[in-house]
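Long-time lurker, finally posting.

We've been working with Putative OsmC-like protein (Nocardioides albertanoniae) and I want a structural starting point before designing mutants. I don't trust myself to interpret raw outputs, so I'm hoping someone here can both generate the structure tokens and explain anything notable. Sequence follows.
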Amino acid sequence: MTETTVDNGVNVEALLGARAALQESPEAAKFTWRATNTWLKGTHSRSKVEGFFGLGEEQETGRSFESEGDHPPQFAAENQGPTPVESVLTALGGCLTAGVAAVAQQRGIQLNSVTATIEGDHDIRGILGADADVRNGFTGVRVNYSIDADASPEDIEALVAQSQKRSAVFDILTNPTAVEVSVS
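Top reply, 14 upvotes:
Generated this for you. Predicted structure of Putative OsmC-like protein:
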């Protein structure tokens, strides 16, 4: 029997080492992620993420990422970026797919391709104030994976299930989260 080396680009040994270390020091596992958002014009804004608190102190990683948000012309906007709700869908897909890659690496499954299609159903009468009985958010979200891997269909389904179980964004979307908004 030939042994195959699996390389999905995930350093599972480092992740397992971090898990073991944080089991010994649970206070270091408390992170605060941050983003700023600046209005530009109309419904167009720019978000920026850099730095975070974690491992017991401020973390300056030298990373800085910007993304823009806007709305399409159908909303009388200038279409300068994805809508905020589309950004939520991409966050969900990114989180779940990262988990699929990590779990596959851990289980010795070589991934050849992974594509997630994420859809959110949204009745926009809520955000427009057209009907007070319609909620502002999604009424449903669906994620469909197309995965080509050196594994059985059952093993691939188990990868996705484990990723879903460990996904922060999936948890945020499916469980109530306290959100506090203030003005300074």
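Before you design anything, note these points.
The chain is about 30% helix and 25% strand.
The CA atoms of residues 22 and 29 lie 6 Å apart.
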